[in-house]
Amino acid sequence: xxxxxxxxxxxxxxxxxxxxxxxxxxxxxxxxxxxxxxxxxxxxxxxxxxxxxxxxxxxxxxxxxxxxxxxxxxxxxxxxxxxxxxxxxxxxxxxxxxxxxxxxxx
Length: 106
Hints:
By secondary structure, the chain is an alpha+beta fold. The protein has a single domain, classed as 2-Layer Sandwich (YaeB-like fold), CATH 3.30.2310. It has helices at residues 16-32, 34-50, and strands at 11-14, 59-61, 71-78, 81-89, 93-101. It has a five-stranded mixed sheet. A hairpin with a 2-residue loop joins β3 (71-78) and β4 (81-89). The relative contact order is 0.21.
């Protein structure tokens, strides 16, 4: 059985903060292994694309102002490390807000 078909058009948007986070992760991993950096990018892309069909899969979190703004987090396992994707569900888009390593101060 495949994913539930989308009932309306939804797009995936990476905020500038999320893009900076991804660039930071890429630079860090490329210093260790270009292959690892490529695999991490593929894994993050796969998980974030999955959110289009299953937007509520992540754990709900409160925003910094304590309001519920449909912000969620989903973990990504990558080798011995884990990353956390923080995103917001909006009417016609899933906004990727941040990408963190689990050990980062967030």
